[in-house]
Amino acid sequence: MSGPFPEVIGLSINGRNVSVPKGTTVLAAVAIAGVGTTRVSVTGAPRGPLCGMGICHECGVTINGRPHQRSCMVESLQGMTVLAGGES
Amino acid sequence: MKPDADIVVVGAGIVGAACAMECSRAGLSTIVIESRFAGGGATAAGMGHLVVMDDSPAQIALTRLSCEMWRELEPELPVSVEYDSCGTMWVAADAEEMDEVHRKSGVYAGAGVDSELIDSRKLYEYEPNLRPGLAGGLRVPGDAVIYPPVAAAWMLERAVSNGAKFVKGKKVQSVRPGGEAIMEDGSLVRGRTVVVAAGTHSAELVPGIAVRPRKGHLVITDRYPGHIRHQLIELGYLKNAHKTTRDSVAFNVQPRKTGQLLIGSSRQYDAPNGAVEESITARMLDRAFWYLPHLKDLQCLRVWTGYRAATPDKVPLIGPATDCKTAEPIEGIWLATGHEGLGITTSLGTGRIVAERLGGKSASIPFGPYEPSRFPPYTEEVH
Predict the structure, then answer these.
(1) Are B247 and B280 in contact, with CB atoms under 8 Å apart?
(2) At a CB cut-off of 8 Å and minimum separation 6, what does A40 contact?
(3) Rounded CA separation B20/B37 (Å)
(4) For residue B299, which residues of chain A lie inside 8 Å, CB to CB?
(5) What distance in Å separates the CA atoms of residue B149 and residue B106, rounded to the nearest whole number?
(6) Which strand (E) or helix (H) includes residue A27?
């Protein structure tokens, strides 16, 4: 870290701009944005994060147009567009 | 001694379940014995493609009959069977494979199977995610896709509602002349005929039959509805998939009703175990990426393997079993196995043939090509 304050990353979650410290996962950014549902099941039921380590696939979101990205495994980057809750 | 039933089916994979459904429907009293659960072997591991294949006249006759039966059954199938009449697109990469398209379409026409010649332009209208520069293809609209283990369980339910008895969790240890199935606990179930439909395990019950396990790998992705619309198979499939000498891979990708994609396929004899092999999976995916470059951007959920029950001529063994030493029929013991990668399709036709022959009815198709006795008595393999 270069100084006392961490670098801040700005990204869009379901159209809402949020700022998070560098190193924050997309999943954490989604939670900070107040979005609890990451994806919907094949029958349309809401799903949220479960394992937090890339195994369960429940935290899948669309990042920059690519669907089903496991948000717990992806670091937030400046200018990312994230759609969660089955929106695409 | 009075038999317990006309027919005792060993194995409730999709082939055994179809035999039980057809026999019970024909009024034959039927018992099905399954050591684990319905559709737990190759039935659960495979793709579930209902496809007419023209590898040989016997194969086209059985797959055509079976696909017809599937289409008749479709209105009765529960939604959970996921029947999807997506059809098959045989993809031709170049002019040489387009010649094969024409030959294939002629064979299908001769067998009364609808198919549509597809030029390059039309190919991309149907399947825009295919790589540029392909020559065309052959579309077979009557082919379909199902979820096999649910279909097997449904057929078994049908059999039971026709009066069949399902014995679950009991393993048949051996079969003996006179229609005898000996259970692990020593008890005996006797049928007028025992039909061994135990897939790759059938050779444990009837030694020396011409069935070998042939390992396959499959990959499934997350949901990407519309990425492909047909089951896509490379036209080089037969030459690639049916090289019997060594490990082979072929491009074969299936759209599921959920939007998921099943990516195959691989074929291996003498695989040391059922583990997922990185080298084979990589070769299989490379082949798929060559045809569908955007597959690389999709999320894979799982990779698994299974074993097909393969015969030397790619045609199943349906009929009286023969003794491996004397080549004489074993009284009261039949085989319904060796369906390799086509068992989901040909389960229904197999059940029909078994029910017709054992019920003394006239046959829908000539059954000679499926007779197990076509293979000579087993001798130690010469390497």
Answers:
(1) yes
(2) A46, A47, A85, A86
(3) 15
(4) 57, 60, 67-70
(5) 34
(6) helix A26-32
Euclidean distance between CA atoms A87 and B37, whole angstroms: 39
Residue pair B283/B311 in contact by the 8 Å Cβ criterion: no
pLDDT tens digit string along A32-84?
999 999 999 999 999 999 999 999 999 999 999 999 999 999 999 999 999 99
Taking the C-alpha atoms of residue A34 and residue B228, their distance in angstroms, rounded to an integer, is 35
The H or E element that residue A12 is part of is: strand A8-13
* Confidence (pTM): 0.93
Q: Does B300 touch chain A (CB under 8 A)?
A: no
Start-to-end CA distance of chain A, whole Å, equals: 35
Backbone angle region of B183, left / alpha / beta, with phi > 0 → left and psi within -120 to 50 → alpha: beta
ipTM: 0.83
- List the structure tokens of B41: 């072997």
Are residues B224 and A67, on separate chains, in Cβ contact within 8 Å?
yes
Report CB contact under 8 Å: A60, B222: yes
Tell me the pLDDT tens digit for each residue of B134-170: 999 999 999 999 999 999 999 999 999 999 999 999 9
Q: Using CA atoms, how far apart are residues A11 and A8, in angstroms rounded to an integer?
A: 10
Residues of chain B with C-beta less than 8 angstroms from the C-beta of A62: none
Cβ-nearest to B301 among A42, A57, A67: A57
Q: Could you tell me where the DSSP H helices lie in chain B?
A: 14-25, 42-45, 57-73, 95-110, 120-126, 148-161, 202-205, 237-241, 278-291, 343-358
B94: amino acid identity, one letter: D
For residue B39, give Cα distances in angstroms to B36, B43, B100, B101, B168. Answer: 9, 5, 35, 34, 12
Query: Rounded to whole angstroms, how far apart are CA atoms A18 and A35?
Result: 12
